Amino acid sequence: MANPNVETVNASSGKWMLFLAFLLVLAGIVGFYVLAQQPAYVRAGALIGGIVLGLVVVFVSTPGKEFIGFARESYREVRKVVWPTRKESLQMTGIVFAFVLVMSLFLWGADKLIEWVVFSLILGWK
């Protein structure tokens, strides 16, 4: 039995729009190289034109609109973040450096102990 609350979405038009955008960007790149004998501003215009048209098509498509909505919502959430103060950042950085120093000394000591046990006690090498 089908759930009446489930909405089915036909995303084929969005896929075709993205494919068209890809083709426009590709056409801009190809145009840049095909127009190799033309002045630089013509070649750059072809490249930039293809990229701009591709971006316009992407942002007009359904996935592009969803991306814009997602980006706006993400920006809104980032504005809600309580960032640490300079003092808190420096304190946390100091704690991390101290921990790294202690762990490096511990691992160096463990390495030397294992080296001494294996090479001096077990194998008898000097």
Topology readout:
Layout: H1 12-34, H2 40-60, H3 62-80, H4 86-122
Helix pairs in contact: 1-2, 2-3
Protein name: Preprotein translocase subunit SecE
Description:
This protein has 126 residues and is mainly alpha-helical. It has 2 domains: 74 residues; 43 residues. It contains 4 helices and no strands. Helix 1 packs antiparallel against helix 2 and helix 2 packs across helix 3. It is elongated. It comes from Imbroritus primus.
Keywords:
126 residues; mainly alpha; 79% helix; 0% strand; elongated; Preprotein translocase subunit SecE
Number of helical regions: 4
CA(first)-CA(last) distance: 78 Å
Oligomer: single chain
Mean pLDDT, all residues = 90
Q: Strand content of the residues, in percent? A: under 5%
Q: Major sheet, described briefly?
A: none
Gyration radius, to the nearest Å? 30 Å
Q: Share of helix among residues?
A: over 70%
For the secondary structure, the number of strands is 0
- Write the element-wise H/E pattern from the N-terminal end onward: HHHH
Task: Identify low-pLDDT runs.
Answer: none
Organism: Imbroritus primus
Protein name: Preprotein translocase subunit SecE
